[in-house]
Amino acid sequence: MTKNLNHLFIHATLLFLFALLLFPVVVMFSTSLQTFENIFSWPPDWIPANPQWVNYFNVWFGDYQFSLPFLNSLFISTFTAVITIVLAFPAAYALTRFTFFGQNALLFIVLVTQMFSPIVLIVGLYQLMQAYNLLNTYTAIIITNCAFTLPMAVWLLHGYLKNVPFELEQAASVDGCSRIKGIIKIIIPLSAPGISMASIYAFIMSWNDLLIPLIFISKSEMRPISLALTDFVGQNVIYWHEMMAASIISTVPIAVMFSFVQKYFIKGFMSGAVKE
Amino acid sequence: MKTEVAKPIKPLPSEKGRWRFSPEHSPVLYLLPMLLFMAVMVGYPIGRVIYLSFTQNILTRPDLGVSFIGLGNYLNLFTSVEFWETVLRTGLWTSLSVIGKTLVGFLIAWLLAKDIAFKKFYILLLLIPWVTPMVVAAVAWRWVYDGQFGMLNWILIQSHIINEQVIWLGGKMSAFFATAATDMWLGIPFMAMVFLAGLQAIPVELIESADIDGASSFHKLRYIILPLMKPITLVATTLSAIWTFNSFGVIWPLTRGGPVNATETLIVDAYKRSFGSFDLGMGATIAVVIFLILLMFTIAYKRLLMKQES
What we know:
The complex is a heterodimer.
Chain A: H1 2-32, H2 36-39, H3 54-61, H4 67-97, H5 103-114, H6 118-131, H7 138-161, H8 166-174, H9 179-190, H10 192-208, H11 211-216, H12 225-233, H13 240-270
Helix pairs in contact in A: 1-13, 3-13, 4-7, 4-10, 4-12, 5-7, 7-10, 8-9, 10-13
Chain B: H1 28-52, E1 55-56, E2 67-68, H2 72-78, H3 81-112, H4 119-126, H5 128-131, H6 134-145, H7 151-158, H8 172-200, H9 204-212, H10 217-245, H11 251-255, H12 266-275, H13 280-309
Antiparallel strand pairs in B: 1-2
Helix pairs in contact in B: 1-13, 3-8, 3-10, 8-10, 10-13, 12-13
């Protein structure tokens, strides 16, 4: 009996906490289904009698043209993820399969750069991009994103590759397989989960970033979603119902990806992958 | 299979030079792409920022030109009252947000660690703030905080906590707390999940034997759970402090550092100096200060991690 009461109390506390936690999400969703007149009515209409699913349609195809920033973000994030892995995988491989001078120092540098705020590098990168006429290009955003996702990807892959048995490669080399061939035929397939996690991480990071496009992009047709969403807030009349629909559209892909890898992130951050 | 005879092949000293770039025996080729990339994209900008911090370089004042002024920027910065106010504000804002995340995260984890129904469902809901992109969260909260039609005002008026509408992002104090609350909201799931993992690692026997001794819930928390959770808490809060300190994507869309600097942290300040007033020298100086602060935090994080492992 006391146990039941206890559980009732726990559920009540949890429900209260979750009501607070999910409040903005409910507001976001509810607003995204309102009409323009309704969002500026007081008291607010929480559950619209006629949910305006058409808002989502308008955001995508209408004046707001959200398909454009969405596709820009998709393009930028995909390339960021691919380049990040191409650079990070061999490095992570070397860090787990070889012992060499400066190995620990290198791992520490990776950790330090992972903790950087983009603001530390951005002035230098801005001048670099300016010098090579790369401002207002996707290239500038993509390679800058890579600079910030690469260290974490190395860290995550290093943690993953440590647990892929070395013996398999050795067996292959005894059978006359070259090292590169062994990596391609054995290590890459075995570490596919690790690779997908690291690439999803890179994808999410560049999808979420605001500072880099804010500084590198001034052409409105090149804006990624993070910039498109904030630009909208600065205007006089904010079409909050469409803003919220756009917000939800930009959250869904990330939410789906994230649900696959969330556990691994905590492990990666907390397991001290850098310590050897 | 003859796996047992296979040993890692070590280069003979005489052949070492030949093998320096061999993909079979040397890590060089594997590391080279990353190292080159990092040298250009991280090494160069850091060098550049350090150099700029020793110069006077204001893009809007080309008449002044670019001149090397040694520690001038640092002296100006360290003698300005505003800078120290920003440092203090950043410290307070970061601590407020991290403490909030830690407390709420721990409470949620503690409740979820118990053997209750719908646990998986709660965890699923918990992850929602985490999957929300920072900018989306900031935009949504901006609407929640809206002074005229915001839902927060409606809730607080309905429950008689306030009598009239408050323009949350318009007042100095309220904007400070409102931006911190948004940042907390984003960070709570990470904290809760870390704590949940930690709580589930506590041996059941420990709790059971305490139960047999007749310990109350509070005593179990105070004398068993909290001491065992201390290392993991230190690592998680240090990491969270680094992220919170870096938080630009929350403050910029919400307040752009305003009203009257009330939410201007070091990151926002550095951005505004470099790309608002185009004072690259001063912006770089603050960036170097930020770099040093983050370096300290990172060293602390690494030490805590290593301690926890051993």
